Amino acid sequence: MRSTAPRVPVLLVAANLVTLAVTLAVNALANALPLNGRTTGEISDGFPNLFAPAGYVFAIWGPIYLGLTAFAVWQLTHAGRRGHAVVDVGWWFALSNIANALWIVFWHLGRFPATMAAMLVVLVSLCAIAARLGPPRAARSAAERWLVYLPFSVYLGWISVATIANAGVFLLDLGWNGAPLSPAAWTLMLLAVSSALGAWLLLRRGDLAYLAVLVWAFIGIWAKQSGVSGTSAASGTPGVPSVAYGALAAAGVLAALAVWRAVDGRRSGPAGRGARSLAPGT
Predict the structure, then answer these.
(1) Are 244 and 250 in contact (CB under 8 A)?
(2) How far apart are CA 110 and CA 229, in angstroms?
(3) What is the CA radius of gyration of the chain?
(4) pLDDT per residue over 15-38, tens digit each?
């Protein structure tokens, strides 16, 4: 274990603050104007993408940006400047912010291949941050747990879902219809793969926050495809029952796994350190 606390470079702190501010501004203006005449959600609804959840699910961006802002402010404190977390996050956060802002611009301009590239940069950046930080139980304090590990776990969970949805839009824009499989079959396969990844991260890293985001997204897919949210009807695209049931089943399995992990962690006592920090995920 490292015995000396590193000093966080001032340039890194400034880059994190500035790039996050730019990202927030671009996201807000893109929908307020709106950029190129359509909101982000309206563009998404224009594609028959079965993996895209109901519109209300995208409200998760509020907590994500709130968490990232909390991290950006925390890095200015004594604990943030003298701790390891900001250094571990490194320049990857600033890179993800730049890619996020570019994604918004590309999305509104209809440059879907470019959106795919930008989304992958965000995903890779967040994966690098997760790898450098380690599992949530590695947090050195409650502040790190809530202001560093939790925001980035939630962000990574959502970007994992968003990357798959973005890939669907990219392929639809190219005119690919999923042959030889049906769109529903592809979606069910992606739900299975996403669920397996979430389960693996829970068992390997104890990341409940990541899993919770998947459950949130899958319930949103169920709501859209079952007609509960009214999104499919409003867009003129009929729901697909098999996808709705598959998404609900995946959400149920992951939720049950999370409960089992939480209960098992508590039973293990001191040996299961993650049981003492369930809020951000262990």
Answers:
(1) no
(2) 26
(3) 19
(4) 999 999 999 999 999 999 999 999
Structure tokens at 181: 């499989």
Q: Which two tokens stand for residue 77?
A: 């404190």
Structure tokens of 270? 């001191």
Domain ranges of the chain: 10-276
Q: Which residues, 6+ apart, have CB-to-CB distance to 169 below 8 Å?
A: 44, 47, 49, 52, 112, 115
Query: Which residue, 81, 69, 119, is CA-closest to 99?
Result: 119
pTM across the whole model? 0.90
CB half-sphere exposure, 32, CA atoms < 13 A: 6
pLDDT in tens, 140-170: 999 999 999 999 999 999 999 999 999 999 9
Return the biggest CA–CA distance within the chain. Answer: 60
Structure tokens at 166: 């973005």
Reference 64, options 140, 136, 145, 156; nearest CA is: 156
